[in-house]
Amino acid sequence: MKGGDVLAQALRDCADTFYTVPGYPVTGIAEAVGAELTVNEKVALEYALGDSLSGRRAAVILKNVGLNACADPLVNATTQGLRAGIVIVAGDDLSVKGSQNAQDSRYYGEVAEVPVLEPASYSIGAALEEAFLASERFSRMAILRVTADLLEREAAAPACSGARGEGRLAPRDLTMRGRVAAAAQGTAAMFAWARGHSLNRISGDNVSVGAVEGASRAVIVYPPPALPPSVRVIREAGRPFLAEHRDLRPPQPPAKVERMADRGHFRTFCPHCPFKPVMGILAGKDLSAACDMGCAILAMNPPYSVGVAAYGLGSSVAVAARSTGIALIGDYALLHSGINALIDVYEKGLPLLCIVLANNRLGMVGETPAFNPVPYLAWSSPVVAGAGDPRLEIVVDRVDRPRTLVVEGTCPEGESYETVACGNL
Fold first, then answer.
1. Is a pLDDT exceeding 80 seen at residue 368?
2. How many domains does the chain have?
3. Which helix (H) or strand (E) holds 168?
4. For residue 347, is pLDDT > 70?
5. Dist CA 341 CA 351 (whole Å)
6. Is the domain of 219 the same as that of 288?
7. Are residues 127 and 62 in the same domain?
8. Domain span at residue 226?
9. Are 407 and 289 members of one domain?
10. Domain end call among 175, 210, 245
11. With 0-12 CB in 10 A as exposed, 13-18 as middle and 19+ as buried, what is 79?
């Protein structure tokens, strides 16, 4: 079997859902597994996050430059956590056969603090399975880096054990600083995992990576494996990633992570926030929502606690379409990048209520004026209602098709977020 066929079979054995934006050298793999085409790579990854929240393993198949569009949710998922595993299969076009550059995807491992595996022809199936298990063990995504040389040569048939792990979302009672510290603790544990893993077969004075032939092998390339001083030559395809990172040390996170109880309070909406009635309706109907960056993220906190997770600006639309069925998003976040996902959701007829909180400003970044979202949404026939409109009680609910609700409100001048004392919960 060719490496591409082996990888396709391993994906079918290990994952539940597949998303793609085609590109050389992984187009054939995406076709072989019947991956769902999305409007861009960021939307694909956000759909995968929604699947993860619902307990489904997801694979996102894309080429190297496509990984750039995923940076926001890729990085944010490390501090927010996930449930079922997500693996990004990144096809690096080192010969620039069908790309505008020869980008090396492995560097995203360091940026996002996610495991990166680069299999040899004998270890494609084992590496993919381990990537999913690592994603679940460390509650963050994993990257499987492949090259055209690997996919086009003969490879060993995959062997999937069927083992599955269980990730976890960041605890609700952690502050943002606490989430970052907890993620760093996970990264430190990830270093120990990589350095002692049996997939790495290192001996002698040289080591090969990926499609480069050699008896001594490194498969987990980030975090770097333990390379003894005797290793003088590292042979790898692309930039010298492992050679540059061989002496990298794990982070030294604080022993204690900050919790809301340490700070003494949760932050919630302003005292006279016009959108409180919407949050009250969601809580009263026991509905959950995917949240976005901006004020919508406060819905995760008491007293409403209706938000499940937040993975980056414009992310809630696609995440909710595969999980909660309800997205909370600000007007600016929607136009920034959420609207791409909304177009995809409408085209596919997915059941989603997208609630746009329209206050015509960027509330968390100095109250800069924002665009009115309604003209940009005319194609979706949105329901537009004032924040106090009694129709909201009916409209805010689960749906069986795409629907957009724009809730218009004016932020009270001079107010700032209220706090809810932890002792009052």
1. no
2. 2
3. strand 168-169
4. yes
5. 13
6. no
7. yes
8. 3-245
9. yes
10. 245
11. buried
Do 236 and 301 fall into the same domain? Answer: no
What is the signed CA dihedral for 201, 202, 206, 209, rounded to 10 degrees?
40
Rg of the chain over all Cα atoms, to the nearest angstrom: 23
CB atoms within 10 A of CB 424: 10
Q: Are residues 348 and 207 in the same domain?
A: no
Residue tagged 């199936």 (tokens): 125
Report the largest interatomic distance among the alpha carbons of the chain, rounded to a whole angstrom. Answer: 74
Q: pLDDT tens-digit profile of 1-11?
A: 999 999 999 99
362 and 318 within one domain: yes
DSSP-derived secondary structure letter, 347: H
Which of 212, 245, 278 is the endpoint of a domain? 245
Say if 124 falls within a structural domain: yes
Q: What is the mean pLDDT of residues 73-92?
A: 98
Same domain, 240 and 300: no
The reply to whether 281 and 177 lie within a common domain is no
The answer to the question of residue 250 being in a domain is no
pTM over 0.90: yes
E strand or H helix that includes residue 80: helix 71-80
Q: What angle in degrees, to the nearest 10, is found between the helix axes of 71-80 and 41-53? A: 20
Q: ∠309-310-311 over CA atoms, to 5°?
A: 120
User: Looking at this protein, which amino acid is placed at residue 184?
Assistant: A
pLDDT tops 90 at residue 424: no
> CA-to-CA distance for 49 and 72, rounded, in angstroms?
13
DSSP conformation letters of 3-51: HHHHHHHHHHHH-SEEEE---TTTHHHHHHHTPEE-SSHHHHHHHHHHH
Calpha distance 109→302 (Å, rounded) = 34
E strand or H helix at 348, and its extent? helix 339-348
Q: 230: domain CATH number?
A: 3.40.50.970
Query: Does residue 258 lie within any of the structural domains?
Result: no
**Using an 8 Å Cβ cutoff, are 245 and 224 in contact?**
yes
Spatial CA neighbour of 145 closest among 80, 49, 242: 242
Give a yes or no: residue 257 inside a domain.
no
- Phi/psi at 206 (5° precision): -145, 160
DSSP 383-417: EEEETT-TTHHHHSS--SSEEEEEEE--PPTT---
